[in-house]
C-alpha cells in the first residue's frame, strides 16, 4: 500500500481562507480588526524566520500584526511589563511569546502572565486545565492543526486507537487530550516506553512528536494506519551539495509511507497547519472578547 499524502500546505491555505472570511465579516459588520502580537526575545535565526512568516500570513488574512523584538538580555520585569501592556491593549486579541526563551527568563512565569483569553498558544495553565476537563479553551496550535487533519481525513476518529509519541506540554499532552475529547482510545508513549514499536503497531493513528529525526520506522506501522508527523528536524544533506541541509520529520517517511494509509509530509504537513491555527485562534479569541459567535470548524 502506498499512503495518501495529507497535504498540510493545501489544507492550511483553506483554513487561512476561512479565517480571512471571518476577518472581513468582523471588519465590515462590527468594525473590529483582530490583532496578533508576537514577542521574540533574542536573535535565534530560525525563530526570526518563523516570526517573519507568521507576521506575513497575519497581514495576508487581513489582521493586524504587531512584532516586538527584544534584546536577548531583556530582563524578566521588562518582558512582563510588555506582556501586561499587551494584555490591556484593546486592539490586541492574541499574544504569542516565542519559545524557547533565553535561559535567564522563567518560561512558566512568562507564559502564565499572558491573559488566558489572549493566549493563542494555549499554554497558560488555565487553558491547559480547561482543555483537560473538556471545557472551552484556547487550544495549542500544533495539536489543533493535527486534529483538523485527522477529522478531515477520517470524518470521525471515535473509537480509534491513537498512539501519541512524545509527552511535551506543547504537543504530546494537549494532543492526547484532544484525541480523548474526540473519543479516541489514547496511549501516550515516549522515548522510555517499553517495546515502543509494539505499542505503535496497535495504533490506527500515530502522532509522532518525539523530536528525534526519522525515529518511527515503517515496520512499526500497522498497515493502513494514519501517520501524523509533528517533527521538524534540520539535518545536514551533503548529497545536495556542500553546506546544504534538509528537513525531516520524526517518522522515516519512505518506509512509513509504504505501509500507512495516510501520512503527513515534512515539510508541508503539520508546520503550515500550526501557523494557520494560530491565525484561527486569534479570530476565535477576538470573537470571544467581543461576545460574538465564534467561527465553526476553526476550534476544537
Ligand atoms: N510560542 C510558540 N509557539 C509556537 O507555535 C512556536 C514557538 N513558540 N517556537 C517555535 C516553534 C516552531 N514552530 C513552527 C511552526 C511552523 C513551521 C512551518 O511551517 N514549517 C514549514 C517548513 C519551514 C522551513 O522550510 O523551514 C513546514 O513544515 O512545511 C515551523 C515551525 C512554531 N513554534
TrEMBL record:
Entry annotated with the keyword Ribonucleoprotein: no
A Pfam entry, by short name: THF_DHG_CYH_C
Tetrahydrofolate dehydrogenase/cyclohydrolase NAD(P)-binding domain span: 140-288
Top-level taxon in the UniProt lineage: Bacteria
Substrates-to-products reaction catalysed: (6R)-5,10-methylene-5,6,7,8-tetrahydrofolate + NADP(+) = (6R)-5,10-methenyltetrahydrofolate + NADPH; (6R)-5,10-methenyltetrahydrofolate + H2O = (6R)-10-formyltetrahydrofolate + H(+)
GO cellular component: cytosol
InterPro entries, sorted: Aminoacid_DH-like_N_sf (IPR046346), NAD(P)-bd_dom_sf (IPR036291), THF_DH/CycHdrlase (IPR000672), THF_DH/CycHdrlase_cat_dom (IPR020630), THF_DH/CycHdrlase_CS (IPR020867), THF_DH/CycHdrlase_NAD-bd_dom (IPR020631)
BP terms from Gene Ontology: L-histidine biosynthetic process; methionine biosynthetic process; purine nucleotide biosynthetic process; tetrahydrofolate interconversion
Pathway(s) per entry: One-carbon metabolism; tetrahydrofolate interconversion
Binding site for NADP(+): 166-168, 232
Record keywords, A-Z: Amino-acid biosynthesis, Histidine biosynthesis, Hydrolase, Methionine biosynthesis, Multifunctional enzyme, NADP, One-carbon metabolism, Oxidoreductase, Purine biosynthesis
Domain Tetrahydrofolate dehydrogenase/cyclohydrolase catalytic: 6-121
SUPFAM superfamilies found in the cross-reference section: Aminoacid dehydrogenase-like, N-terminal domain, NAD(P)-binding Rossmann-fold domains
Family from the record: Belongs to the tetrahydrofolate dehydrogenase/cyclohydrolase family.
Functional note: Catalyzes the oxidation of 5,10-methylenetetrahydrofolate to 5,10-methenyltetrahydrofolate and then the hydrolysis of 5,10-methenyltetrahydrofolate to 10-formyltetrahydrofolate.
Subunit structure: Homodimer.
UniProt name for this protein: Bifunctional protein FolD
Species assigned in the record: Sulfitobacter undariae
Upper classification of the organism: Bacteria, Pseudomonadati, Pseudomonadota, Alphaproteobacteria, Rhodobacterales
Name of the coding gene: folD
Amino acid at each position: 500500500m502506498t499512503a495518501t499524502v495529507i497535504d498540510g500546505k493545501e489544507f492550511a491555505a483553506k483554513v487561512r481562507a476561512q479565517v480571512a472570511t471571518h476577518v472581513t465579516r468582523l471588519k465590515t459588520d462590527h468594525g473590529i480588526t483582530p490583532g496578533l502580537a508576537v514577542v521574540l526575545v533574542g536573535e535565534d535565526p530560525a525563530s526570526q524566520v518563523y516570526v517573519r512568516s507568521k507576521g506575513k500570513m497575519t497581514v495576508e488574512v487581513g489582521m493586524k500584526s504587531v512584532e516586538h523584538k527584544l534584546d536577548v538580555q531583556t530582563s524578566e520585569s521588562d518582558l512582563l511589563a510588555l506582556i501586561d501592556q499587551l494584555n490591556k491593549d484593546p486592539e490586541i486579541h492574541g499574544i504569542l511569546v516565542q519559545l524557547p526563551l533565553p535561559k535567564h527568563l522563567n518560561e512558566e512565569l512568562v507564559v502564565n502572565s499572558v491573559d488566558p483569553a489572549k493566549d493563542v498558544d494555549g499554554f497558560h495553565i488555565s487553558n491547559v486545565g480547561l482543555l483537560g476537563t473538556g471545557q472551552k479553551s484556547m487550544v495549542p496550535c500544533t495539536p489543533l492543526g493535527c486534529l483538523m487533519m485527522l477529522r478531515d481525513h477520517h470524518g470521525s476518529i471515535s473509537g480509534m486507537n491513537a498512539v501519541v509519541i512524545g509527552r511535551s506540554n506543547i504537543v504530546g499532552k494537549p494532543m492526547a487530550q484532544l484525541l480523548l475529547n474526540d473519543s479516541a482510545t489514547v496511549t501516550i508513549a515516549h522515548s522510555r516506553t517499553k517495546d515502543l514499536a509494539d505499542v505503535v503497531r496497535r495504533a490506527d493513528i500515530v502522532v509522532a512528536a518525539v523530536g528525534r529525526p526519522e525515529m518511527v520506522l515503517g515496520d512499526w506501522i500497522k498497515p493502513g494506519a494514519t501517520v501524523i508527523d509533528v517533527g521538524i528536524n534540520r539535518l545536514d544533506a551533503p548529497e545536495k551539495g556542500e553546506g546544504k541541509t534538509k528537513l525531516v520529520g520524526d517518522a522515516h517517511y519512505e518506509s512509513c509511507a509504504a505501509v500507512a494509509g495516510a501520512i503527513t509530509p515534512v515539510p508541508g504537513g503539520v508546520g503550515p497547519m500550526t501557523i494557520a491555527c494560530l491565525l484561527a485562534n486569534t479570530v476565535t479569541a477576538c470573537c470571544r472578547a467581543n461576545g460574538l459567535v465564534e467561527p465553526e470548524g476553526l476550534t476544537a
